[in-house]
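does this look right to u?? LLP version
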Amino acid sequence: MAAADPLEFSLLPLTSTINEQGHLEIGGCDVVELAHTYGTPLFVYDERHLHIRCQEAVAAFDDGVAFASKSFLCRAMASLAASEGLCIDVASGGELAVALAAGVPADRIVFHGNNKSMEELITALEVKVRHIVIDSFDEINRLERLVSDQAPVSVLVRVTPGVEAHTHEFIQTGQEDSKFGLSVASGAALAAIERLRAMAGIHVAGIHAHIGSQVFDVESFAKAATILAEFFIPLGLEELCVGGGLGVAYVNGEHAATIGEWGAAIRSALKEAGVPDSTVVTAEPGRAIVASAAVTIYRVGTIKRLPDIRTYVAVDGGMSDNPRPILYGSGYEAFDPARVSAPRPETVRVVGKHCESGDVIVPDAQVPEGIAVGDLLATPVTGAYGYSMASNYNRVTRPAVVFVADGTARLVLRRETDADLLTLEVE
Ligand code: LLP
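got this back:
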C-alpha cells in the first residue's frame, strides 16, 4: 500500500457510498451538501452504523451490556443505544443527567466514577440506577451514610486484576498503580466486597474490570478474563463486567476485531476458566460503537507552503474538536469528501485554528493534488472521544453534530454560538 493511496473505504461509516459527482454520501446524504447546509466543522454520524454496532454488542454479551457514554453522548445517542437494548454507562452526574434527559430508564444506567461526590451518589440513589460501580473505600463510607435497608442498592465492585492491556501488548504489571478500582493482589478488592456484603441496604451483584482502551488484540482480553475468573468464581456473584476497550482502525492498513469476535474470545476464556454458564457477562464498549460511525468535515482556510520545509493546511477546527492527536499522538487520515477516490500524492500538515503550534490534526497527511483554500477536508473515525472531549479553547465554538439516515439529516447538537460562550458570565 502506497502512502498516496486513496482513503481505505473501510474507515468510513457503513452506509458510505460515492455518488456520480464523486462526493461521499453517508446515510444517503451528500456530505458536501451537508457542509453547505450546516457549516463546518461538522460531525456527521451514520445512524445505521450506530444501530448495527449496538446490535452487535447486544448479541455478543448478556443483558446489561452498556454503551460507554464518555465516548460520545447526547440525548439522541443515549436514546438510540437504549432503544437497541443497551444500558448506558455514565461516569459523572453530568453524563447521568443527559442519559436521564434522553428518557433512558434509570434502571438501564450504570454509574461509574473514581471520585463520586456525595451529590452524585444521592442522585444515583434517588433515581435508582441499575448499578453503582464501587471504586474506593471512601465511596463505601459515603454510601454507608446514604443507604437504608429498605431498598437495596445494587453495586458492582471495580477491581484491578493486576493486568493491563495496551494496543499491541499485554502486561501483568503496572495496573496496581492506578487511581481506578480496588486491587485484587493486595486484598483490597476482597475486603471491599466483604464489607459491602455485610452492609444493610447493599446488594453486591458482581465485579467489574476495565483493562485498557484502544486494545486491538482480543487475546489480551481473553487473558485478562482468565485472571479475572479466578477471583470471580469463589465469590459466587451474578455478574462479571469486563469493561470496554476494544480498539478500532483509525488509519489505512489497520485492522481491528469485531465486537462479536471480542465477545466470543472473552466468553470462551471465561468458560474455559470455569465461570458458571449462569453468570451474566457484560461489557461497556464505547469506541467500538461510535468511532467509525462518524467523520468530521472541515473547510480549508489557509495554506502555507514553506519551501523545502513543509506545507501547512489550516482548517476551521482543530484541537478543540479533536484533542486526540495532541493528547495521545493518535493518527488520522485526511481526505477530500468531494473526491473520495482520488489518489493523495501530496504530504501536508493539517493544523487547526488555535493559537498553539501543537494544534495539529494530522502531522503528515496525504491529500489529493491541488488542495486549495475553500476545499473541504475530512477526517474519518472521529465518532469517539472527539465531540465528547471537545473544548472551547480560544473560545472556539463547538461544531454541530448531524445524524444521517435514509437520505435525511437531522441536527442533534446545534453549533455553539458566541452567545453560548457568554452564558456563564455573571458580571
Ligand atoms: N468502561 C470504563 C470503566 C472505561 O473507563 C472506559 C473508557 C470504557 C468503558 C470505554 O472504553 P472504550 O470501549 O471506549 O475503549 N479518551 C481516550 C479514551 C479513554 C477511555 C477511558 N475509559 C481516547 O480518546 O482514546
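The longest helix spans residues 218-232. idk if thats expected tbh
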